[in-house]
Design goal:
Radius of gyration: 18 Å
Distance between the termini: 44 Å
Order of helices and strands: HHHHHH
CATH topology: Four Helix Bundle (Hemerythrin (Met), subunit A)
Oligomer: single chain
Strand content: under 5%
Number of domains: 1
Number of helices: 6
CATH class: Mainly Alpha
Bound molecules: fe (ii) ion
Number of strands: 0
Helix content: over 70%
Largest sheet: none
């Protein structure tokens, strides 16, 4: 297996969730009502799974190791774009959290913003994923030896193992401080 194998499998779940989110915005537009709980779940998915778990393994392991290599200009360019795109996604999710909170507090006019933010994310992610899957992940594997790839796979597994503890330790800490 290649270290990008698990990342490509994770892309499939992200795509599935985005489809579900798109279905939800169609429903919001029809019923003129936001399900605040659904948006909370979608935000948790994007923040914990797509960003912390998935982008985390991309940036903290794969990209970190690629930065140690002498990259072809095209690969360096794509990697910088991918990092910028992760930053963009984080910003959009932050806006979604804020809009959802205001909606929950009674600002019903925030529904339109919620719809357009989700539509934006649903448009952004497949392009980002395609760029990684089709034009980056496989070609950049050539920079690594088998041993280096195996070390990245092991580190990715350890990264995943720690996440569940990190998530719930933070949740208890936040609740304890309230
Ligand atoms: Fe990415
Ligand atoms: Fe990705």
């Amino acid at each position: 297996m290649m270290p990008v194998g698990p990342l490509m499998i994770e892309h499939r779940l992200i795509e599935k969730m985005l489809k579900r989110m798109q279905k939800e915005v169609d429903r919001i537009e029809k019923d003129k009502k936001v399900d605040v709980r659904f948006i909370d779940l979608a935000v948790d998915f994007i923040r914990t799974y797509a960003d912390r778990c998935h982008h985390g393994k991309e940036e903290d392991i794969l990209f970190r190791e690629l930065k140690k290599k002498k990259l072809a200009p095209e690969h360096e360019k794509i990697m910088n774009e991918l990092v910028q795109e992760h930053v963009f996604a984080r910003g959009e999710v932050k806006k979604l959290v804020a809009a959802n909170e205001l909606y929950a507090q009674g600002q019903k006019e925030k529904a339109g913003e919620i719809v357009s933010l989700i539509r934006g994310l649903a448009e952004f992610y497949p392009k980002h994923i395609k760029k990684e899957d089709k034009g980056f992940f496989i070609p950049v594997m050539d920079y690594f030896s088998r041993a280096e790839q195996d070390a990245m796979i092991a580190e990715g597994n350890e990264f995943d193992r720690k996440l569940i503890h990190e998530k719930y330790q933070k949740m208890v800490k936040d609740l304890s401080e309230q």
